[in-house]
Amino acid sequence: MRICHLLTQRLSRCRAAARLAGERGAISLLLAVTAIGLFAIIGLAVDGAGKAEAVDRAKSLAQEAARAGAQALDVPDAIADGSVQVDRDQAAAAARRYLTSAGVQGTVGIADGGRTLSVAVHDTYHPKLIGMLGINWQVSGQGRAELVYGIGGVRQ
Question: Which residues pair with 155 in a beta bridge?
């Protein structure tokens, strides 16, 4: 009876050891999968914030380029007949110079009889972490400047 008891105990220990041997390395696999997921979440957070900043920069550059172009007034016409508008060629050139100095590309449009300048900026954001996968994001921004003048405190 004593021998049977010893054999049963030994058999139980062998079964337990066999069960544990089948799970060997399971924690390593779990850690690897969790680390990849965590890296992906951190990458999306960091690069998502970077992209939002790049979009804000594109909008700011477009607005500033539109303002730079709007300062190219057509002075001879303003003196001759009082009309306030930009010199189209000079305004477009000034806006393009601003974009070039900022290192971005864009388009310039003039409407409303030379009283409104619209600028669209197109740029590429190179993500820091997700960029390792070869991913780049296109960003763009719009800016607009209107010529507004007043006579005697009244906006025209």
Answer: 150
Band of the pLDDT at 9, cuts 50, 70, 90?
Answer: low
What number is the average pLDDT over the span 126-149? Answer: 88
- What contacts 138, CB < 8 A, 6 or more positions away? 122, 123, 124, 125
Return the bridge partners of 125, or none: 137
CA torsion through residues 155, 71, 120, 90, sign: positive
pTM of the entire predicted model: 0.70
* Secondary structure tally for the chain: helices H, strands E: 4, 5
25-55 pLDDT, tens digit per residue, is 567 778 888 988 898 899 889 999 999 999 9
Structure tokens at 87: 């010199």
CB 111 within 8 A of CB 32: no
For residue 130, the 8-state DSSP code is G
Cα–Cα distance for residue pair 15/5, rounded to 1 Å: 15
